[in-house]
Amino acid sequence: MAVIALNGASSPAHSTHSLYTEVEHQLAAQFETVRTFHLAGDDIGHCMGEFDRFENASGRYRIHVEGKEIEQA
Q: What is the pTM of this model?
């Protein structure tokens, strides 16, 4: 089983970064695969709903953003 983890710490100096590091170690001990996405600085666009994707791009994102990679994971 794989786990997808989202790290929202703004920088390695932020207090949530050390908390996330511990969570990541715990997950790695329990699951075969842990894939982490570091969200600080990523360009994650606003979702305009499923209909917008269907209407404008046949069910695909109109622009490349990191959110697409997270969704596929």
A: 0.62
